[in-house]
């Protein structure tokens, strides 16, 4: 199988390649893709050196699968070009997520929506992915009426520039404004500003949580409100989610249900101070759930704390799980051709 990784040298692209190796995805020809200035450089994958290609060169090779993590503008221009030669594109940007003609997929939640004819499949936003893995069993069993979400998101979600800013500030260096990813210092600070502000006063990140959750769970009637916050953590997004359900519940049943959910790791033992933290999630592919408790201020409502590695389950791992699901269901063509 020919596999292209577009944005291979970026934060998510690098992790995508690591996850491909770890999960032993059946790659027979690997095509790393990066910017024009990186073309021709060497890229190490599974102990072998590969030449970095341009996007045009990669399309000409007609890969069976292309994993995209190079930003929305690149995806909007180039994903259709790959699709035209029969390649299945799994795109990690926001470009196609809310396009009604494209599937937005978390395999444990809604993998069944993928069909053999899909050539561009959207990977959801990192904070959405981990949340819907935790929420889907609840929605199926009880119905979700309303969600109140507060996120605590790692600087790695912004990219390499943000990580560099964090590292330089951590070492005591004064970072010039033009070299910052954020308007303010991130080290020893909390910034209630992820992505750009919209006319309604929410950020794009907050509205991704609103809109993507409804699309993935297949229920536009769920009421969702969110506040997304950037915290000085390198690796791992955390979320406090208040969940109002349609039907009443017993906490023992909720715990049992989530303990058996695919992709979930329960971490909830107050007696031993056991609860999810980015410290535990880093480098892991599971979604960690803890601090489960009834909301004593409102009926049929509970609080939960959800943590995952945003570069893995929140991006790279989920994208590769989509490809694995397609392989398993024989939906991924092994020889790409014009369709």
Per DSSP, the total helix count is 10
Helix content: 25-40%
What average pLDDT do the residues reach?
96
CATH superfamily caption of the largest domain: Dihydrodipicolinate Reductase, domain 2
Total DSSP E strands? 14
Q: Element order, helices and strands?
A: EHEEEHEHEEHEHEHHEEHEHEEH
The unreliable regions are none
Domain module count: 2
Gross morphology:
globular
Distance between the termini: 18 Å
Arrangement of strands in the largest sheet = 2-1-5-6-8-7
CATH class of the largest domain: Alpha Beta
CATH topological fold name of the largest domain? Dihydrodipicolinate Reductase, domain 2
> What's the main sheet like?
6 strands, parallel
Question: Radius of gyration in whole Å, from Cα?
Answer: 20 Å
Structural class: alpha/beta
CATH architecture of the largest domain: 2-Layer Sandwich
List the helices and strands and how they pair.
Layout: E1 2-6, H1 11-22, E2 29-33, E3 42-45, E4 48-51, H2 55-60, E5 65-68, H3 72-84, E6 88-91, E7 103-104, H4 107-110, E8 120-122, H5 126-142, E9 144-153, H6 160-170, H7 204-217, E10 223-230, E11 237-245, H8 251-259, E12 264-266, H9 278-281, E13 287-294, E14 301-308, H10 312-328
Parallel strand pairs: 1-2, 1-5, 5-6, 6-8, 7-8, 9-10, 12-13
Antiparallel strand pairs: 3-4, 9-11, 11-14, 13-14
